[in-house]
Amino acid sequence: MESKKQNGCIWPGNDELMLAYHDQEWGTPLYDDNKLFEFMILDAFQAGLSWKTILYKRENFRIAFDKFNAKKIAKYDEAKIQALMLDAGIVRNQLKIRATVTNAIHFLRIQKEYGSFSKYIWQFTDHKIINNKITHHHNILATSKESDAMSKALKKEGFKFVGSTICYAFMQASGMVNDHLTSCHRH
Asked: Which of 52, 36, 54, 43 minimizes the C-alpha distance to 165?
């Protein structure tokens, strides 16, 4: 699928990788647990950084974190964590790396408990897509009552780097929330 310049969402700018991500992934409803886990990891690493930074390192993250395989990540030991700290291809933040391991453990537990992580995570939007019908980019939210509830629940489950802003970004990316501008060809 070829990316095209859109009249709506302005955040991808003219960057080809950002446009491709916008046109092919962002806001598309996800129900695949592995993809949801990937987005959760990437959104946690985005905290305090731009999405462009993470997107340009995404393939490096994929390699460094065993294709976002939660079962493998949950077993990372101190040697693996320190090796990741030396990997210039990813964001070398020890708290975020350790949080990824912790989150993998809790992700697997929730997956087992609920039958899938998707069933668990979509409960925060009542298993529906929230269409915010945004007409101007200044009206895009950073948090919502749903992301507040998701953040609180995930923290209670033991997850790290799941504040409401991160959860809202995750909801946008995974299509739980449609924040494409109404003038966007993806709306």
From this structure: 43
Each residue's pLDDT tens digit, 52-83 = 999 999 999 999 999 999 999 999 999 999 99
Distance in angstroms (rounded) separating the CA atoms of residues 101 and 103: 5
The CATH number of whichever domain residue 68 belongs to comes to 1.10.340.30
The kind and range of the H/E element at 33 are: helix 33-46
In a domain, 187, yes or no: no
Distance between CA atoms of residues 63 and 61, nearest Å: 5
pTM: 0.93
Q: Which long-range contacts (CB under 8 A, 24 or more apart) does 11-16 make?
A: 11/51, 11/137, 15/52
